[in-house]
Design brief:
two-stranded antiparallel sheet; single chain
């Protein structure tokens, strides 16, 4: 995480339920992290699919601009 905090949403839009809040330097994980994105045309924001155990389908969405690839 690069921002002070960012929410993980149930669906790729800020109007949906937050399933988690990540703080700066926390790790966001999941097999989906490297390749599954969604562009929300209404918000003009790219979202990244991440592992989210509290989400109904165990997939959460975080704004792509909030994350950076770890080494």
């Amino acid at each position: 995480m690069t921002w002070p905090k960012a929410a993980v949403y149930e669906k790729p839009a800020r109007i949906y339920h937050k399933v988690a809040v990540k703080r700066r330097n926390q790790t966001v994980t999941g097999a989906l992290c490297t390749r599954w994105t969604y562009y929300n045309k209404r918000e003009h924001v790219h979202y990244l699919a991440v592992k989210a155990p509290k989400a109904q389908d165990r997939i959460g969405w975080i704004r792509l601009a909030a994350v950076r690839r770890s080494k």
